[in-house]
Amino acid sequence: MLIEIDFDSSEALYIQLYNQVIKAIAANRLRDGDSLPSVRVMADELGVNMHTVNKAYALLREDGYVNLDRRNGAVVAVRVEDHGAHMESMHDNMEMIIAQAVCKNIELEEMQELVREMYEDYRRLSSL
């Protein structure tokens, strides 16, 4: 699995890992039933502490992207049943992005086009 960690980023390492796994699922590079490397293997591959990977995996489980099992480890299993909670989370995440766009004088139409392009890219990748 191709995960790249930017040690110079201000974003926490576990968040980088969390985000990259979700992007890999959205891009169809990871599919339901695929196993992620064990915590130890992933930590060794990335050169990070096992607690960092453990925290990312726990968040992925909590947010409904993977199942954690003692025998099988972390397995991709996207839960989609709670649409309302997902929409609320999206609202919270997008609120800051919108605020930043307004502060930087980015027009609504530019934002809409950016979102449309990105969404279509992921939909295209997920259908391959």
Q: Tags for this entry?
A:
128 residues, mainly alpha, Arc Repressor Mutant, subunit A, two-stranded antiparallel ribbon, 5 helices, 59% helix, globular
Structural description of this entry:
This protein is mainly alpha-helical. The protein has two domains: 13-76, Winged helix-like DNA-binding domain superfamily/Winged helix DNA-binding domain (Arc Repressor Mutant, subunit A, Orthogonal Bundle); 83-126, no CATH class. The chain contains five helices and two strands, in the order αααββαα. Strands 1-2 form a two-stranded antiparallel ribbon. The mean pLDDT is 93.
Task: Tell me the layout of helices and strands.
Layout: H1 13-26, H2 39-46, H3 50-62, E1 66-69, E2 73-76, H4 83-103, H5 108-126
CATH class of the largest domain: Mainly Alpha
- Kindly estimate the percentage of residues that lie in beta strands according to DSSP: 5-15%
Per DSSP, the total helix count is: 5
Largest sheet: 2 strands, antiparallel
| CATH architectural category of the largest domain | Orthogonal Bundle
Number of strands: 2
Morphology call: globular
> Termini, distance in Å?
18 Å
Biggest sheet: strands side by side, in what order?
A: 1-2
Number of domains: 2
Question: Share of helix among residues?
Answer: 55-70%
Fourth-level CATH superfamily of the largest domain? Winged helix-like DNA-binding domain superfamily/Winged helix DNA-binding domain
Radius of gyration: 16 Å
Structural class: mainly alpha
Using the coordinates shown, work out and report the CATH topology of the largest domain: Arc Repressor Mutant, subunit A
Mean pLDDT: 93
Which regions are unreliable across 5 or more consecutive residues at pLDDT < 50?
none
> What is the H/E string?
HHHEEHH
